[in-house]
Design a protein that fits this description.
- This protein is of the alpha/beta class and 378 residues long.
- The chain folds into 2 domains: 2-286, 3-Layer(aba) Sandwich (Rossmann fold); 305-373, no CATH class.
- 30% of the residues lie in helices and 20% in strands.
- The chain has 9 helices and 13 strands.
- It has helices at 2-11, 82-89, 117-135, 153-162, 187-201, 219-231, 258-271, 313-323, 348-360, and strands spanning 16-17, 31-38, 44-51, 59-65, 94-98, 141-151, 169-175, 206-210, 236-240, 329-333, 339-343, 365-369, 372-373.
- A 9-stranded mixed beta sheet has the order 1-2-3-5-4-6-7-8-9, sandwiched between helices.
- The protein is globular, with a radius of gyration of 21 Å.
Length: 378
């Protein structure tokens, strides 16, 4: 019966809701998931998360594009950038988060383009356009008030999308955009050349966020991209915010990063004629439930797993896996050697403690949260 249902889903050409029970949807943010068709030689469905304020709209629309994790894109989780979602919902936006072809439950295969980074971005932007074509046909969408945002590979996709000059898209926001390709000769120079090429065809302004301890793109890499983009006529304001935590690449997903990007983004939105100020009537969307984040301690460096108390080799190996998970995240330990971690919303702190306490005899405590250690010795 399940096989038949899946076949029917593939045959359907309309955007199809997925069952909430399968996805742990956040009802407080009106979260839903659709499979949106992308028409071509073959129709493929793109897994897309939608968050909307209550009411009929029309709402301004923001697309948030995801990055690319290490490994097979099919095993990448559905992207849920809830910090950004809350920011935009409070300002009355409908938030659309598409998973591109070959990622998570989206159909098709990831098309990398080899070392042709310019082509890579253009292919990714094609998937985003298919989703936006669907969105702009909905009565709740304000087709004249739209914004494109992206993080990491999604930031690169956002810059590539700018070349389409899609009607109603007023601006682009790029958080640490690019794609690191160590296997390609002079890949940093390739990024800069492609950025300049995108700029020549882009008519809308953009806002860029990059830090100086980014594990993917060093300072000279992002400065070269920005120089090439603006040198080719692109409108791009660079917010170079210096160092952030142990890896500035995580700024957009980290709670501590909000104070860096939110004020800058609010000013930028107002400058391009988009809603920038939070509305008091929508304040409920800004409330974050769950455990409070403990204060950072100086017990140990974040990446020094040798200092973690109690755990054995398996726990230290688990901690290494934890450090590769996206923020928000948390890692918990217990005196008997039990450990557990969780990443993503909702409330990774509580979920990491729950995972640890399956064997921790209710004695688990948090060792690390997000990008820092919170452990205190008794």
């Amino acid at each position: 019966m399940k096989t038949l249902a899946w076949v029917l889903l593939l045959l359907c050409t309309a955007a199809t809701p997925l069952r909430a029970a399968e996805l742990e949807l956040d009802s407080s943010l009106n979260e839903t998931v659709l499979m949106i068709p992308k028409q071509g030689l073959f129709t493929i469905k793109l897994e897309t998360t939608l968050y909307k304020p209550e009411g009929a709209g029309p709402f301004p629309v923001v697309i948030i594009n995801h990055g690319k994790a290490y490994g097979d894109p099919r095993f990448q989780d559905r992207y849920r950038p809830l910090s950004g979602v809350r920011y935009f919902l409070q300002r009355g936006y409908a938030v659309v988060v598409p998973m591109r072809q070959g990622f998570s439950k989206s159909e098709g295969s990831y098309i990398g383009g080899g070392c042709n980074i310019e082509s890579n971005g253009e292919v990714q932007a094609g998937d985003v356009k298919a989703v936006l074509d669907y969105v702009t046909a909905q009565p709740w969408a304000d087709r004249e008030q739209m914004l494109m945002v992206g993080q990491s590979h999604g930031g690169w996709t956002t810059l590539a999308f700018g070349t389409l000059n899609y009607p109603g898209v007023k601006a682009l926001v790029n958080f640490a955009g690019g794609l690191r390709q160590d296997q390609c000769t002079a890949w940093e120079r390739g990024l800069a050349i492609a950025a300049g090429s995108y700029a020549k065809a882009t008519r809308v302004p953009s806002l860029w966020f990059y830090g100086d301890n980014d594990s993917f793109f060093n300072t000279s890499t992002y400065q070269g991209m920005h120089a090439a983009y603006t040198g080719a006529g692109g409108q791009a304001r660079l917010v170079a915010f210096g160092k952030f935590g142990s890896d500035s690449h995580s700024l957009f997903g980290a709670r501590a990063g909000e104070k860096i990007w939110q004020g800058e983004l609010t000013t930028f939105l107002k400058s391009v004629g988009l809603p920038g100020e939070a509305q008091s009537a929508l304040a409920k969307y800004g409330k974050v439930s769950g455990m409070a984040v403990p204060e950072k301690t100086e017990f140990a460096a974040l990446k020094d797993d040798s200092r973690i108390p109690f755990v054995r080799d398996t726990g230290r190996a688990g901690y290494k896996l934890y450090l590769n998970k996206p923020i928000p995240r948390a890692f918990a330990i217990a005196p008997n050697g039990a450990w557990g971690y969780a990443d993503g919303d909702p409330d990774p702190l509580k979920r990491s403690l729950d995972a640890c306490n399956r064997n921790g005899k209710a004695q688990c405590k948090l060792y690390s949260v997000d990008d820092f250690v919170v452990w205190k010795e008794d």
